[in-house]
Automatic annotation (TrEMBL):
Co-factor binding details: Binds 1 FAD per subunit.
UniProt site positions, description: Electron transfer via tryptophanyl radical: 302, 355, 378
Keyword Ribonucleoprotein among record annotations: no
PANTHER family with a match to the protein in the record: CRYPTOCHROME (PTHR11455), CRYPTOCHROME CIRCADIAN CLOCK 5 ISOFORM X1 (PTHR11455:SF9)
Any one GO biological process: photoreactive repair
Cofactors that this protein relies on: FAD; (6R)-5,10-methylene-5,6,7,8-tetrahydrofolate
Protein name stated in the entry: Deoxyribodipyrimidine photo-lyase
Domain of life: Bacteria
Amino acid sequence: DTALVWLRRDLRLDDHAAFYHALKSSRAVIPVFIFDTDILDALPDRADRRVEFIRESLDALKLELEAHGSSLITRYGRACELIPQLAHALNAQAVFCNRDYEPAAIARDAEVAEQLSQNGRVLRAFKDQVIFDTDEVLTQAGKPFGVFTPYKNAWLKKLSPFYLMPYPVSRYLERLAPMPPQPLPSLDSMGFSRTNLDALGIQAGSAGAQRLFEDFIGRMGRYKAARDYPALEGSSCLSVHLRFGTVSTRQLVTTADGSGGEGAQTWLSELIWREFYQQVLWHHPRVAAGHSYKPEFDVIAWPNPAGHFAAWCEARTGYPLVDAAMRQLNQTGTMHNRLRMVAASFLVKDLHVDWRLGERYFADRLIDFDLAANNGGWQWAASTGCDAQPWFRIFNPITQSEKFDAEGKFIKRYLPELAALPARYIHTPWLLSEDLQHAYGVTIGRDYPVPIVDHAAARALTLALYKAAGKNR
Ligand code: FAD
């Protein structure tokens, strides 16, 4: 009697719910991973850091499994067909996996469960990637939370050591099915090419996650003070590992919860934000289908002025912090959290482009792309989401720049054409006189664009758009 462990966004062996339950069930456990063409075929680019990150993480996991006399079976094709076929071929009565809350994953899992059941097999799914899921944290009236702070308070109140207990997978590893090392498809064979992942210093797999976490533990106390400044190394950079499950959420929460101090508490709050958006998506899957969380804002007719979206994507808005942020995204597949807020707000409230276009652009490029967090972040920035911020609070891209990159260190890293500018001009290079432009060796309009919009005028139009949406309700 064998069991499959079907890995998806949980590419590790330690503290892993599905592995634990499968191994405990005393069967010969066979780990499998499917490079799912339903997902891969939809990717816009054949050089995708995420595909490379997954492959490298699997390579590391396979070696770990091989050290225990087992291996990892990987296939390329449609998961909803291949998993039932593998279960049949390998005579597995049960397939164990960790729960995924995205609508497409829920539909896929339902299809697999249905196929398996036709032959008397079962799909068993476990909570793993969050501390609390589905209906575990609700309001007193039994409704899902729509505002973060009360959700966070209820989440913290419910937290107890029970929920943080690691799954002791290592005790049962002798129950892994013995097998010779299995091949892992190359990127090439799947039609993908390598990216600059190595050059960026992004190490995949559990080892990569643990290295980052150890480094961050030393800085956690300073997190609250440093996290908003993109030129500083303030945050953990663990989002890609949380996305692909190369680190256990329980491990991170245990450390944050156990360390006193404001830094650790603020960081814990961010981990709770992650769960908050996961439960929003679970309870309101329509947000992933292009709908505003607050339906009254669906009536906004976004002007999408010609050229605005392209200028934003190509870092040609003339607002240095926004352009530096977009270059960071385009060159590295990451973007600092403060900059995600600034760039998203700028697209929607300064350029009047539909937030869904920005959401898609981020989704295609972010290495840590997560449907729940990205949608939540965009709806937050567009004021269509579930937060307490009123829509008339609009980020000013200049004061954001002055506040969070005062000396322009981050800007200059990504906009070398502005490297000679002193701090007082770095946020508003269009204010340089011709003489000063000459002195600093930069011609605005040639070396760097003039601003695409005037913030005050853009702000006024945004207020009118949102106000009209409110009236049309
Ligand atoms: P840290 O500051 O070290 O935080 C620790 C972890 O908490 C993160 O790794 C992440 O898993 C979680 N987290 C932190 N902030 C948030 C948040 N606001 N919402 C949800 N989870 C959070 N995060 C993603 O993981 N994937 C996305 O696709 C994504 N898209 C975003 C889009 C927009 C418009 C905005 C404003 C935010 C988005 N975020 C997204 C949230 C946040 O920007 C990133 O999680 C963060 O920048 C990752 O860096 P870090 O790992 O160093 O985070």
